[in-house]
């Protein structure tokens, strides 16, 4: 795997026994899992809105209150962790998340529930900003790729397990269980953190936190994601989304000016002078936007062809994250042998193939066709995901690993939000809907997935720009 000259290895990496090494991986994996396991909440949407007596339109606030919060705070939390220590912020994030999950599960009014979701977003931002940094800084530099592959494997596994666990718990214990079941998981991780996480994970207390820059960044991200969401709701002719986009651009300009003017900004923008780093982050946004079409539209297709058989729908949908799990397990070998760019291209070729296959799904279900499309896409996406996080964590210096991990999660979330908004708008504009005729639905479905495949190919082409200046191993 290639490295940037700016990337710094630990001067005195901790020698870990094999048992403690796997204990550290388990603790970080369990702690971070609180984020991807939130996919269990989606299963509980019908029961949740029924319990509070609110309409279906309230579902968007359950999602937006959480996603917007953690997305806007990720880089700031990463920067704080780089200053005061990643272990400390990780532990605080677990304690905060436990309290937030309890608030969500015990809320008796919808307003209090949304407050709990906002609090949950704060805790998730703290956890996700520290996960990759704890993995890279706790192992010798030679083990970085292996550690990040383990991290991707655990993250993908939690994403795959979320809907299944959600269905089981909601069926047995009701909607509040999708929050309660994560409390003991975090409790175990919290107990293990005191004994397993090394105490010398970097802290830079001599540096200061740029509060003005953080506020400008939060405003930039909040306005940008609100604009994307508004484009999905109001279309491209309404003034409100464009106004939000203008606010985001102005705040982004202020953030850039601030970051270039001070010694210790939230993120060192000079990192983006590196072609591979800049291209990998942009490609990450594009690929996640395209990949979200699977979670956005495939459930509706499966509901049509399998007459709303929930078990079959869930089983087929699981093929996508399970493919990513398998890819995470083998990506390390590809990175060590061929490098990040080659692995990325191979992964994106598989991911695009899966999307193009999905665009050709017929009105009558063809089992092997569905399995091949979702499996190929998931496996290719998983390869690309590991390669990108390796590029990002290799490029940022040791003193900014929290920011590096946060940036990787932020670009992923921006892609998902963009995909959800723009994908649904395109699907609707083409005459697609859950109630549409078979021909209209399949026509819109085919076009959206073909466009998604083209977006993935574009991301792969973008990475070609880095080839002349790819960093030496």
Offer a few descriptive terms.
77% helix, Growth Hormone, Chain: A, disordered C terminus, disordered N terminus, 18 helices, globular, single chain, 473 residues, mainly alpha
Quick overview of this protein structure:
This protein is an all-alpha fold. It contains 18 helices and no strands.
Strands, helices and their partners?
Blueprint: H1 18-32, H2 40-43, H3 45-52, H4 59-84, H5 86-106, H6 110-138, H7 144-173, H8 177-180, H9 182-196, H10 211-234, H11 239-261, H12 275-305, H13 310-317, H14 319-338, H15 340-359, H16 367-395, H17 401-429, H18 438-464
Helix pairs in contact: 1-6, 1-7, 1-9, 4-5, 4-6, 4-10, 4-17, 5-6, 5-9, 6-7, 6-17, 7-14, 7-16, 10-11, 10-17, 12-13, 12-15, 12-16, 12-17, 12-18, 14-15, 14-16, 15-16, 15-18, 16-17, 17-18
Description:
With 473 residues, this protein is an all-alpha fold. The chain folds into 3 domains: 1-6 and 13-205, Growth Hormone, Chain: A (Up-down Bundle), CATH 1.20.1250.20; 211-261; 270-473, MFS general substrate transporter like domains (Growth Hormone, Chain: A, Up-down Bundle). It has 18 helices and no strands.
């Amino acid at each position: 795997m290639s490295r940037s000259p700016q990337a710094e290895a630990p001067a005195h990496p901790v020698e870990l026994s094999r048992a403690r090494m796997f204990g550290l991986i388990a603790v970080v994996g369990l702690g971070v899992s609180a984020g991807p396991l939130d996919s269990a909440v989606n299963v509980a949407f019908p029961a949740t809105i029924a319990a509070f007596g609110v309409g279906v339109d309230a579902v968007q606030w359950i999602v937006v209150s959480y996603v917007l919060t953690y997305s806007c705070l990720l880089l700031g939390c990463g920067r704080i962790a780089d200053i005061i220590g990643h272990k400390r912020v990780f532990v605080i994030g677990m304690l905060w998340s436990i309290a937030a999950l309890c608030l969500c599960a015990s809320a008796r009014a919808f307003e209090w529930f949304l407050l709990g979701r906002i609090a949950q977003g704060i805790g998730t931002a703290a956890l996700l900003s520290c996960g990759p940094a704890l993995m890279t800084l706790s192992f010798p530099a030679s083990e970085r790729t292996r550690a990040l592959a383990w991290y991707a494997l655990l993250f993908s596994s939690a994403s795959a397990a979320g809907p299944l666990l959600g269905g089981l718990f909601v069926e047995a214990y009701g909607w509040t269980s999708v929050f309660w079941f994560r409390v003991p998981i975090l409790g175990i991780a919290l107990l293990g953190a005191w004994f397993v996480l090394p105490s010398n994970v970097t802290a830079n207390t001599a540096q200061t936190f740029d509060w003005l820059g953080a506020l400008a960044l939060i405003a930039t991200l909040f306005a940008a994601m609100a604009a994307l969401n508004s484009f999905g709701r109001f279309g491209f002719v309404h003034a409100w989304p464009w106004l939000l986009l203008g606010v985001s651009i102005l705040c982004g300009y202020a953030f850039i000016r601030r970051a270039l003017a001070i010694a210790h900004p939230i993120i060192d923008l000079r990192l983006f002078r590196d072609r591979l780093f800049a291209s990998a982050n942009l490609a990450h946004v594009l690929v996640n936007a395209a990949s979200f079409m699977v979670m956005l539209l495939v459930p509706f297709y499966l509901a049509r062809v399998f007459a709303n058989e929930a078990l079959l729908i869930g089983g087929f949908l699981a093929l996508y994250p399970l493919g990513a799990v398998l890819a995470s397990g083998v990506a390390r070998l590809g990175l060590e042998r061929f490098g990040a760019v080659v692995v990325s291209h191979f992964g994106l070729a598989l991911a695009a193939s899966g999307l193009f296959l999905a665009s050709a799904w017929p009105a009558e279900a063809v089992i092997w066709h569905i399995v091949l499309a979702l499996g190929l896409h998931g496996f290719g996406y998983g390869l690309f995901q590991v390669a990108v996080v390796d590029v990002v964590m290799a490029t940022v210096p040791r003193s900014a690993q929290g920011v590096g991990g946060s940036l990787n999660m932020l670009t992923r979330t921006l892609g998902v939000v963009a995909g959800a908004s723009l994908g649904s708008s395109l699907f609707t504009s083409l005459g697609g809907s859950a109630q549409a005729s078979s021909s209209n639905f399949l026509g819109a479905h085919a076009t959206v997935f073909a466009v998604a495949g083209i977006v993935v190919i574009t991301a792969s082409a973008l990475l070609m720009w880095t080839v002349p200046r790819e960093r030496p191993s």
